[in-house]
Specification:
The complex is a heterodimer of chains A (158) and B (92). With 158 residues, chain A is α+β, with helices and mostly antiparallel strands. Chain A is built from three helices and six strands. Chain A is extended, with a radius of gyration of 26 Å. Helices cover 28% and strands 30% of the residues of chain B. Chain B has a domain of 38 residues. Chain B is elongated. The termini of chain B are far apart.
Chain lengths: 158, 92
């Protein structure tokens, strides 16, 4: 039975794989919930392969592949409801891009940049790629409200 | 926004090339920001160290292990340095 896994397990990224290790303290992973620990020369930290089978026990979280093209506009509500998006497996000019409008505008900058790259104008390409990342940042900042506060010195007279 | 509208805004008529660039741009977006987040689960096998990273995972945000006692998935730490033992011939 696995317990305290946040303290007793670790992973190392090795190419396309991850390597899972159990971290053993003094040969055991059971008694590490100490607040004060007296140094003991017999205690050693050791990494070993997982010593138990856990069904569905490893979970990755990350950004996932997204279907790039869908048959409906993802930015338009349908009768007040979220649109039902189905992947367009053979996209053409009538397909919709599966992004919000700001990110779609960023894609336009990316394509303009690639067109300039193909034309050999690296300066303009850099400009459009900068615009691309600027719109990405704008889209991201739309999701959160950041508040900046500045400390005021009590003896500052301005 | 349709692909045609994108093509009109960029002044190009090469549909396949635009579709490919849109795919590239979306991949770049996913690589930079957390636009579409997913989870993948697989079994942990006794004595097995290596597990493949899911093919459609673009950017790892966390790796978790199921705490069967607490019945929760908990994030585990990433080891910065490769362990000294490169292969254990007799894992416990």
């Amino acid at each position: 039975m696995s317990r305290n896994v946040e303290q007793t397990w670790g992973y190392y990224i090795s190419g396309r794989n991850i390597q899972l290790y159990e971290i053993k303290y003094g040969g055991t992973s059971q008694d590490i919930n100490f607040r004060v620990k007296v140094p003991n020369p017999e205690d050693s930290v050791e990494l070993q392969y997982p010593d138990e089978t856990i069904t569905g026990g490893l979970m990755f979280e990350g950004t996932a592949f997204i279907e790039p093209f869908v048959s409906n506009d993802p930015n338009l509500l349908v009768n007040g409801e979220q649109p039902d998006l189905s992947a367009d497996t053979s996209p053409d000019e009538d397909s919709h891009i599966n992004l919000n409008r700001m990110l779609t505008l960023a894609c336009i900058d990316y394509i303009k940049g690639m067109l300039q790259d193909r034309a050999g104008d690296v300066g303009k390409k850099e400009y459009y790629i900068k615009e691309f990342y600027s719109k990405l940042a704008d889209s991201e900042s739309n999701k959160r409200r950041d508040i900046m506060t500045f400390p005021v010195s009590p003896f500052a007279l301005r | 926004m349709t692909v045609q509208e994108v093509m009109e805004r960029t002044g190009t008529t090469e549909t396949k090339l635009v579709l490919a660039w849109i795919r590239d741009a979306i991949h770049l977006i996913q690589s930079t920001y957390n636009e579409n987040i997913g989870t993948w689960k697989t079994d942990v096998t006794d004595g097995q160290r290596d597990y493949p990273i899911p093919a459609d995972l673009i950017k790892i945000m966390s790796v978790s292990i199921k705490d069967t006692e607490a019945k929760k998935f908990k994030k585990i730490r990433r080891l910065v340095f490769q362990p000294t033992v490169t292969e254990d011939l007799e894992p416990e």
